[in-house]
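Hi, here's the filled form for the chain we discussed.

Project: internal
Contact: R.S.
Residues: 181
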Amino acid sequence: MNHEPYIAPVRQWVEQLVIGYNLCPFAKRELVRDRVRFFVSQAQDEEQLLVDLENELTLLSADEGIETTLLITPQVLQDFFDFNQFLGRADQRVAQLKLKGVFQIASFHPDYQFGGTELEDAENYSNKSPYPVLHLLREASLDEAIENYPDAESIPERNIEQLKLMGSDRLRRLLEDCFSR
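And the returned structure, exactly as it came back:
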């Protein structure tokens, strides 16, 4: 299976939106250092995705050269409600592997929607991605980055303000453009 049609839009999203608009001020350094792993799961169901998640966590545990993994799931969890429900199972798997406190999972989805918002509200674009993505993060690295970043706790509010200024139509086009490069 050729994974490039899935990796390319996600990489474009990271470069153009996440880094380009500084939604995550910690992302650029690791991408430039080539320490971000893009892995496309071929899972057709949640059980196989849990196996892929476990394999990726095992790889991250063993390879300090990989800082973070974007586990892309193009074949499963297309529905945001199902995706959101799955996150609990994913966190349970992290705990079962005794990796709680070592890794955490951030989530991104084409239909991401925060509670109390409408689907197309601009602030949802902070977590909208071309495909469903489980972002596997090293907690120690995240803690260090937050500790060394001035006013890190204001990042979410700053992102919401910036995204609202950009507007949903522009953000939708930027996300759609990730597929055309």
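Let me know if anything looks off before we file it.
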